[in-house]
Structures are given as C-alpha cells and as structure tokens.
Amino acid sequence: MKRRLLSGVLVVILAVLVGHETDAVAAPLSVDLKAQVFRYLDSTDTDEAARTLQALLSDSNITIDQVRRIIQTERDYTPQPTGTIPDERIDVQGRAYHLALSVPLTYEPTKGYGLVVCLHGAGFTGEAYLERWQARLGEDYVLACPTAPMGAWFTRGAEDLVLATIRSVQRRYHIDPDRIFLTGMSNGGIGAWVIGMHHAPLFAGIAPMASGLDNVLIPFLANLHSTPIYIIHGAKDQVMPAELSRTITKELTRLGYPFVYREHDREHPMAGGHYFPREELPELVIWLNAQRRNPLPMSLTVVRDASHFQPFGWVRIDATDPIAAFSEDLVSKRDDRIKRREYARLDASIVAPNRIEVQAHRVQRYSLFLNEELIDSSKPLVVLTNGQVSFEGPVTPSLETLLRQARLRQDSRQLFPIHLAIQVRKQPS
User: Fold this and answer.
1) Distance between CA 52 and CA 173 in Å, rounded?
2) Is 383 a member of any domain?
3) What are phi and psi of 178, to 5 degrees?
4) Which residues contact 24 (CB under 8 A, 6 or more apart)?
5) Which of 290, 320, 347 marks a domain boundary?
6) pLDDT of 302-359, one tens digit each?
7) Whole-angstrom Cα distance, residue 40 to residue 46?
8) Where in the sequence is the domain holding 27, given as residue range(s)?
9) Distance CA 233, CA 212 (A)
10) In the prediction, which pLDDT does 331 show?
C-alpha cells in the first residue's frame, strides 16, 4: 500500500515538473506569437501581412484561444505625446489631411481612455474645435478633430478620413473600444449622422448638433438600433432649421429607439441660433460618461446602399437585388433608385441558443460572423431566413477567419472565428 502511495506521489511530482518544464519552453514561443499576431494586424505592407498570416496558419501549435487572448489583452502601448497636438498629418489613400489631438496630460498607457471624434462645421478646422471641448472632457478622454476641406463630411472621402482617424489614434493610444464617440456641428453634425449610421457598431454613441438629414437618408436611421443618440439643435437656427432634427426624432420615435433631444433657444451674436452653446456641453459630457458600447448585441438591423457592403457587427450584406448606390457625394448626387429609397435591409436576431432568425429585403446573400459569446460552436446551429431554414448543422471555428476579421475590423471586442455565408431563397411571386 505504501509503495502504491509513494508511486502516486512520484507521478504527481513528475507531472508538475514536466508541466513547469513545458511552460518554460513555451514562454519564448508565446512572446514570438504575440509579435507575429500584432505584426499581421498592424502591417501596412500587404505582402508582409500575407507572409505573416501564412506563417501563423502553418504552425499547428497555435490555437484560436491563444490568438484571441493575445488580441484582447496583450497589445503594448508605448509612451506618446500628451497635451494639445494641433497639427498632425494623417494620410488617407495617398491624400494628406490635418488632425488636431488633445490627450490628457495624465495619460497612462496602461489605462483605456474614451475617444471623442469631433467634426467641424463649414469654414472651420479641427484645431478650432479643440478649445471648446478640452476644458470639459476631463482626463478620461482623448479628443480627435480631423479637418475636411470645406467641411464636406457627407462625402466618401470624409467617411474614410474619420475611420482612418480612429485607427490612427487606436494604434498609438490606449483607447477603450467600447467608448468611442462621434459628434459634430452643422456640416460636422451631418457627418456624425451619415458616418454614424453607416458604421454604427463602432460607436458607443453619436451626438449630432445643429444638423439634419436629407429625406433620402432617413431609412439609414434604422442602423442605430443599438447606438445611443444625443441631439442638440437651436430653436432659432436659420441655417439648418430645427425642423430637420424634429423630423429625425419623429422617425426615431417611430422605430422605438431611445434618444436625447435638446432644443435650446440661445443665440450667438455672429451665428444666431446656429451654434453649439457651451452651456450644453456639461450635460453632454455626463451623457458620454454613462455610455458603453455593447459590442455583441443579440439583434442587429442594417440598411445598405450598394457602396457600403462592409461588415456591420456580426452581419454583412454581400449581394443584393438592384439597389441605390451612393457616389462620392452622399447628399446631392442621386439617381432614381436613391430618390425612391431603394436600399437593402437585414434584421438579424439570436432568438434562442444556437437559433438565428433573419428577415432579408432585397438581399441575395449575406454573411454571419460568430463567436462563442453568441453561439455554442460545439452544438448545431439553425438559421432561418424569411421564415425558411437556410442553414442547419455544425459550424467550425477557423484561425484564419479570426485573424482576417481582426485585421479588417481592428476591434479587440469584435473577434469572430466563424464565418457562415447564407444564400437567400427567392420569395414566390
């Protein structure tokens, strides 16, 4: 009996020793893996990214859980300039733009900060908007104010600029991905609406001021299903009448979406009612402080034109019937389909464990991007589209899918190792 007991103890000791030895050997691999993962995510050289991806995929010892953990928790942030940085340059598709930043003097790379992206009005610059916000935001936010020529935030170029601004700041500063906000005044407010609607899953909230939307863009408000909204407008605004915001609030009410609407009666000596009163800022900051993005809502609604087929949270519209397609200018240039508001729409909900129901309108094919927080990949998944079973069976997580989606999205809270493409059956006439 004693011999058996002694043998058991020796086995346990040996197992512990072997485990420690294995950990000691694996540690350098972990460091190398971390470097490889972030080299792939951050490289601007597509050839280098492709080589790094191939190296990662060829190593059979690398697991999805390892990579997911590295992306979520192990990015290193080096010390960066703080205070007012009024004139940075940011390149977007070969074009240089100005970017003004305000970073808390107490910034610590180990702490996650909120990010407020502020879009200026026509005739202003990003730098001009820094002072308005700095004193009120406090030490918990990084403020980024890009400059768009003529304040044309309703163009595709400006849309790309905002997305590039967020990516640029995220690479250098420790930004909490669940506390990114988009706000703007006048033309900048239009940009906050348009860009916020098309990229709603990025934001913890949007705050358009003294702005509005062209009637043909109203259907895209449905995209704000899970995005908090704070609207400010002057009742005496003669540049953009308050009725523009009132129309939007009526549509948000019809949709059943919560929002805050602040209509003030103040006037500026130079701008009349068309301005952002400093008195409104404290309440807005209180609202910002209370918001946190839900990166994985159980329900999503996405309305798309034919020029916005990028992922929208855990769904993506891939192919559609003939629908409207926006040109460079999202407001003034329109074809008949835009005038008729012919867009594609997808409503997707996880209604029960491993059961997804989708309503698709003018959609021919769509994709689901999933993870273990949304479904249990060890069990069969059922997907219903327009009331018909369009998929039933097992799904397989993929390291390649996880990495490719992580590089595309640059969002540590939206990591998807499962990609499922669904063909929509034609409805009988």
Assistant:
1) 24
2) yes
3) -95, 10
4) none
5) 290
6) 999 999 999 999 999 999 999 999 887 765 667 889 999 999 999 999 999 999 999 9
7) 9
8) 15-62
9) 9
10) 58
